Amino acid sequence: MQEEILTRMGDGQQVKMSAIQVKEDITAGTKDAADRGKIPELTSAEQEHLFEIVADEDRIVGVRSGEEVVLTDDVSYIRMNQDEGASGGLGIPMSPPISVLVHERAFAQDSAVLGATGFTGKHNLNQKLQEVETTHLLLTVPMLYVSGPNLLAYYKPLGPYDNPSDLFPQGKIKEARESQEEAAVVSTDDLVWLGKKMASVGVDCLNLDTVAAAGDTDFYVALKAVQRLKEEVPEMSIEMGMAAEFVMGMHGQITFNGQRLAGMYPHEQLKMAEAAGVDIFGPVVNNNSTKSFPWNISKVVTFVKHTSEVSNIPIHPNVGVGVCGVPLCPVPPIDSVTRVAKTLVQIGKADGL
């Protein structure tokens, strides 16, 4: 066994840890998840397996042949045609459809995705529908379209409804809840409208992304929209990717299917998604940038494993910057990213990423 193991902190900084330190952090990470979610810890065998993945001396690690999983994503094409500065966009002057085709044919991506700026994206819809339909006809892999509740866009100053963040400090709790409920009605209608439009041009899957970013009402909007879309366009698949491991109680009392949404962890969020009719669920587990990579990935896989165990639908954990074990830094290091993927597949039993 190596005397020192090269690993990282949650912010991407490279560090060296002893085998004992790595094992201690793995144990602490799984205990943290178990305590928060009231779920089982990783077994001793699973903790040892995770240690072997973290301690592997190879820079890049991978799963065994036959364990490969599929990839879905949220607007990967912008990594090609936009220069996002710190987050590493390439800024190559190409259209979104061309970027999508490059992802499929040059990078062998498992699925393709186009998306709406502003999520509901009502502006230039006819042009967007033409773009989506034409690109879809040129693809072999499934086409997803990314959108989401984006409830914050309905509050002032962007939208017409009073902003709960302004009302809460004034002690106007009732008014803040009513404002969220009013915005939720319109946001749900918009998502259903968009989903039906995308179904009309043959989109294989509507990817609702960053769900619950604005709290429990945001989650409610996504669930209600899925429920209605499954009644009106049942042939279209729907993927739901969450924003965080814990649903913030911005409303605090809103419910779906008789269950209070505030405070739900991934395995509980999953059950709401299943009840609504979601076909693929993307759990999120937040990183702690001050903790080590072994601690973070141990916490992550504890949540993902339990969510997979109780799930009746495919699980595609959101593996991105600052979530599900990937360090919080502009360009995620390949050593950490591949260890995250291997861990979530072999221990977490994820169906995709």
Plain-language structure description:
The structure is a single chain. The mean pLDDT is 93. By secondary structure, the chain is an alpha/beta fold. It has a domain at 1-57 and 293-353. Helix 7 (173-200) packs parallel to helix 8. 42% of the residues lie in helices and 10% in strands. Helix 5 links the parallel strand 3 (112-115) and strand 4 (143-147).
How are the SSEs ordered, and which strands pair?
Blueprint: E1 5-8, E2 14-17, H1 19-37, H2 44-55, H3 78-81, H4 96-105, E3 112-115, H5 125-138, E4 143-147, H6 164-167, H7 173-200, E5 205-211, H8 216-232, E6 237-242, E7 255-256, E8 259-260, H9 266-276, E9 280-282, H10 293-310, H11 334-346
Parallel strand pairs: 3-4, 4-5, 5-6, 6-9
Antiparallel strand pairs: 1-2, 7-8
Helix pairs in contact: 1-2, 1-10, 4-5, 7-8, 8-9, 9-10, 10-11
Core attributes:
353 residues; two-stranded antiparallel sheet; alpha/beta; five-stranded parallel β-sheet; 10% strand; single chain; 11 helices; globular; 9 strands
Entry summary:
This protein is 42% helix and 10% strand. By secondary structure, it is α/β, with parallel strands linked by helices.
**Measured on Cα atoms, how large is the radius of gyration?**
21 Å
Percent in strands:
5-15%
Coarse morphology: globular
Q: What's the number of helices?
A: 11
Please state the average pLDDT score.
93
Order of helices and strands: EEHHHHEHEHHEHEEEHEHH
User: What portion of residues is helical?
Assistant: 40-55%
- Give the biggest sheet: 5 strands, parallel
Q: Please identify the structural class as seen in this structure.
A: alpha/beta
Low-confidence stretches: none
Strand order of the largest sheet: 3-4-5-6-9
Number of strands: 9
Taking the alpha carbons of the first and last residues, their distance comes to 31 Å
